[in-house]
Design a protein that fits this description.
This protein is of the alpha/beta class. The protein folds into two domains: 267 residues, 3-Layer(aba) Sandwich (Aminopeptidase), CATH 3.40.630.10; 69 residues, RNA polymerase II/Efflux pump adaptor protein, barrel-sandwich hybrid domain (OB fold (Dihydrolipoamide Acetyltransferase, E2P), Beta Barrel). Strands 1, 2, 3, 4, 5, 6, 7, 8, 10, 11, 12 and 13 form a twelve-stranded mixed sheet that branches. Strands 9, 14, 16, 19 and 21 form a five-stranded antiparallel sheet that branches. Helix 3 crosses helix 8. The longest helix is centred in the C-terminal third of the chain and has 17 residues.
Length: 357
């Protein structure tokens, strides 16, 4: 069966004593290294090593199990597996691939309230993938090696720390699911208009992007990203973005949660009634082009997210520390401004705005 066109269903598992098992569980399995209470996480956790997560997802029993995964030494990655009592697809929702994208992280947190009683199949939630970036309030990258986790997939088992984490997440988690949603928002220095992103040419991923319900969906070559790693396993995957700037924006969080609920309902993971889509017809944008800063300095944008610009029109200027204009940034194409840097600082080679057309 073509997984891109039809979300497969897992074989039925016996439902004996379901009432006992539909609760948060922590059982010692063969090869588990520890099973105890982690005070920093405020709950019973099962600690798993580098090569056991895929088996635990595959053999998940009805209930909620909290894991702390250690893809590399001294790295803790929280994972929550919610297994329903009925057969159905496996869906992964992640957030915090960029550790300072707080609206996305909060949206994933809210999904943890879902009960196994309302789920068919399995929901795997990774609410914070880039834990070092979260701790250090990093922008884009991991403080372990200054690499962008969402640009190094499928990773490298013997590469830098970020590359090793990407390799672990792709092979231990993404390889085991039938659909994948990666939640994002603007980073500490970004403002953006909500959108979804999918791999160009992936019809099933495009369908999920439409179901998510944001007014703009971007088709992208998407190399090095989480969704490209998922696609390598035949898993339809989308990125969804709303909010940003380091702020807690309850409206943006609600929009992300509502979109996830729409996808889960579409995949028949839950029968919970999802909010209607924001627009009857999602606008599919074929391409998004970045406007890049040639020099670093102080960035003064004169565009706003959601506005339409003409090709070669000015998006803003860059000044040096003496107040002199040293560069202007123009729109490479005519289109809609989907995001731009909203902070004062800009570095050479950074994308200061994204124009969709």
């Amino acid at each position: 069966m073509d997984r891109r066109r039809s979300i497969r269903k897992r074989p039925d598992r016996p439902d004996r004593r379901v009432g006992e098992r539909l609760q948060t569980t922590c059982r010692r399995l063969p090869h588990d290294r520890t099973c105890g209470k982690d005070r920093s996480m405020n709950g019973w956790l099962r600690e798993v090593g580098q090569d056991t997560m895929r088996r635990l997802i595959d053999r998940a029993e009805p209930g909620v199990t909290r894991y702390v995964a250690r893809p590399i030494k001294d790295y803790q990655l929280p994972l929550i597996v919610i297994r329903g009592s009925r057969d159905g697809p496996r869906v992964c929702v992640s957030a915090g691939v960029h550790g300072s994208e707080y609206c996305a992280i909060e949206a994933a947190q809210r999904l943890l309230a879902m009960s196994p009683m309302e789920i068919r199949g399995t929901l795997v939630v990774a609410p914070l993938v880039n834990t070092p970036g979260f701790s250090k309030r990093s922008v884009y990258t991991s403080p372990l090696d200054d690499k962008n986790l969402n640009r190094v997939f499928p990773g490298d088992p013997v590469g830098t720390p970020t590359e090793q984490v990407a390799h672990w997440f792709a092979n231990e988690v993404l390889s085991q699911v039938d659909a994948y949603i990666d939640l994002h928002c603007g980073d500490l220095n970004e403002a953006l208009e909500p959108f979804t992103l999918f791999r160009e040419g992936d019809g099933e991923a495009e369908r999920l992007a439409r179901v998510f319900g944001f007014p703009v969906a971007i088709a992208s070559p998407a190399t090095g990203m989480t969704i490209s790693a998922a696609a390598a396993f035949g898993v339809p995957a989308i990125i969804a973005e709303a909010g940003g700037g380091g702020r807690y924006d309850s409206e943006a969080v609600d929009r992300l949660v509502d979109g996830v609920q729409r996808v889960l309902q579409e995949l028949q993971v839950t029968e919970r009634r999802a909010p209607q889509r924001e627009h009857d017809n999602t606008i599919n944008i074929l391409r998004c082009v970045g406007a890049v800063a040639d020099v670093g300095g102080l960035w003064y944008p004169n565009c706003s997210v959601g506005s339409f610009v003409e090709a070669n029109s000015g998006l803003g200027c860059i000044r040096n520390l003496y107040g002199d204009d040293v560069a202007s940034v123009t729109a490479p194409v005519a289109g809609k401004v989907m995001f731009h840097i909203s902070s004062l600082a800009v570095n050479p080679g950074e994308t200061v705005a994204g124009i969709c057309f």
